[in-house]
DNA sequence: ACGTACGATTCCACCCGACGGAAGACAGTG
DNA sequence: CACTGTCTTCCGTCGGGTGGAATCGTACGT
């Protein structure tokens, strides 16, 4: 569609590895399969270089060709993700509890996320067939202060992380979005005290979230479980215990099978 | 544990990109976090090179450090996988139907797989809490001829692919494993005729599988849905309709939201 | 059919980034 | 304290990586 904004597409460092990563970056931000020339442009690499690198990636299986001759990331990347540290084991142990939670809450969305830097990354998410609210997919990212899950993760992060985060510019998505560090610090306080949180109107005006922390065997928070609901919906508080219970189940699943 | 078998660890091509991929390969096959020296050895790279590359990967987010200072793949790999062609959209559209199937079949395992070369890759899999049969995780691979899902995928593949596959050495995992090309060809015939399959004792003696094909909008098979059951269990045939129904639902979900 | 435009591929000579060795910093262990 | 392993920095040399140009392929428009 709009092909004229690849200007600031992250100038790849003049190192060979940097160029490979630049190509990955292109695919990470691209929504569909790309032609080699498109990759070349977006990665700011010469066609020659792109061509050679792409073929190395093809041989290895990092990218694959579509029937129309375009390129996209290959299934081997799936394997890599599965080997990726935190995500894998966590997801595996968490799914049963997430499913139970999801089953109790037909119409809603269930999310499991971990913190990566200043962002919340979705490790798993189940939404019901119709529920089109919240379009996050696995691997998707959101600012920490706008989602219930994110606030859980930030509330339990090192104070150094909290300070740094609150000192950075805080994005607002609605007129209700909390961007005042003082308010957020208060939220964190509350979270650590109650071990759950409710947010409303932060991402879009008519949605809210309920989330709770997942602990590892050493009382450290490794993830957050949360659901997204329509604020029009009755008492959000009614869901709190279900979410907390799911979080507790996952905590238990992680603690027992420690390795 | 056994650190003496890194000999045949895929000599990385003497190209910079090849070295990067060698590192990815190390993590792909490693089960836990690794020290940099371990990566260096397994990838057959000098410490200097490993050190420099690893830091580039760290900066970009491809790998991350554990608390103990070891290295593992970073959460950004999750994002890459989510952007990976076939897997993503397919998985997204399929999950609701898979969940419905899973809900009906408490004790069992539900798998969604696609074909990648001569292997079946699991795109999603749900197992019930206790059911410890079948240890496949997302991104996991299996030979095509041994699983119900794999046979579905192979039965609908180009005949060129079939011929090539059947001409290659066929692994057997139990004394019941079918490794006779003629027998397998017969199976494929049957699959295309009935649009479902039952296998028994192929991977382990006491498990069986039931699977059905998922089509895209152009009558091509893009995935297979299957379940794993204990052969001791009653009539495997009883599950066929449920599996076929789930496959049909996914087919429908893919066709409708074509893009 | 012809011409144009764009993408993919191959070839090549120059050159700069990548490489490995060596040596030093650091931590844990006996 | 010596020893063993890991991680890190520095540097001179060398080879793989690089961009340009030329070729081939294919789809589109006139």
From TrEMBL, chains A, B:
<dbReference type="InterPro" id="IPR050707">
    <property type="entry name" value="HTH_MetabolicPath_Reg"/>
</dbReference>
<feature type="domain" description="IclR-ED">
    <location>
        <begin position="76"/>
        <end position="256"/>
    </location>
</feature>
<dbReference type="InterPro" id="IPR029016">
    <property type="entry name" value="GAF-like_dom_sf"/>
</dbReference>
<dbReference type="InterPro" id="IPR005471">
    <property type="entry name" value="Tscrpt_reg_IclR_N"/>
</dbReference>
<dbReference type="InterPro" id="IPR036388">
    <property type="entry name" value="WH-like_DNA-bd_sf"/>
</dbReference>
<keyword id="KW-0805">Transcription regulation</keyword>
<keyword id="KW-0804">Transcription</keyword>
<dbReference type="InterPro" id="IPR014757">
    <property type="entry name" value="Tscrpt_reg_IclR_C"/>
</dbReference>
<keyword id="KW-0238">DNA-binding</keyword>
<protein>
    <submittedName>
        <fullName>IclR family transcriptional regulator</fullName>
    </submittedName>
</protein>
<feature type="domain" description="HTH iclR-type">
    <location>
        <begin position="14"/>
        <end position="75"/>
    </location>
</feature>
<dbReference type="Pfam" id="PF01614">
    <property type="entry name" value="IclR_C"/>
</dbReference>
<dbReference type="InterPro" id="IPR036390">
    <property type="entry name" value="WH_DNA-bd_sf"/>
</dbReference>
<dbReference type="Pfam" id="PF09339">
    <property type="entry name" value="HTH_IclR"/>
</dbReference>
